[in-house]
Amino acid sequence: MNHLENRKDRQISAEFRPFGAKSGAGVTLIELLVVIGIISLLFTMIIVSLRNAQARAKDARIQTSLFQVRSVAELNYTVTRDYDSICDESDRTLSNSGNSGIIEEDVKNQNGGQNVTCIESSNKQAYAVSSPLIGRPGKHWCVSSIGMVKERDAAITTSSCSE
């Protein structure tokens, strides 16, 4: 009876061995290469998703910073009744004075050093600010004095976010 049980065990264990594996054999080279290939593929997918997450985080920071420009502009408007000190008219960027300069520097750190476009109306009663987005190449985020906030296909050319 003992001899029959032992023979049965050998038959069962042989059925569950991988194809081509011999009793007591280790991992074959092909199996090892398949496992390495799968791990490499998973690692690549993780790296790509992390890069996308970083770009989305930078875009969120750009959007938040431009919301801050709007807050600064509205505070300025309550005092001076215009938006004169928001934009630097000589180069169509944010003014370097006060908080606008600090905000522009932060946005440039997030968007890879690209210019933040800022345009005031001729009567200083309206403005718009836009910045390129990193996670969506070719797209710009825009905020304006009338409360418009939107994604655009290009930088602004007027004191409005509308295209």
Topology:
Blueprint: H1 2-15, H2 29-80, E1 87-88, E2 93-94, H3 98-110, E3 117-120, E4 127-132, E5 140-144, E6 149-152
Antiparallel strand pairs: 1-2, 3-4, 4-5, 5-6
Describe the structure.
The protein is of the alpha+beta class and 163 residues long. The protein has one domain (29-152). 48% of the residues lie in helices and 14% in strands. The chain has helices at residues 2-15, 29-80, 98-110; strands at 87-88, 93-94, 117-120, 127-132, 140-144, 149-152. Strand 3 (117-120) and strand 4 form a beta hairpin. It starts with a helix and ends in an 11-residue tail after the last strand. The mean pLDDT is 85.
Binned, the helix content reads: 40-55%
Q: Kindly estimate the percentage of residues that lie in beta strands according to DSSP.
A: 5-15%
* Global morphology: rod-shaped
Question: How many β-strands, per DSSP?
Answer: 6
Chain-averaged pLDDT: 85
Order of helices and strands: HHEEHEEEE
Q: Reading side by side through the largest sheet, how are the strands ordered?
A: 3-4-5-6
Q: Which class best fits the helix and strand makeup?
A: alpha+beta
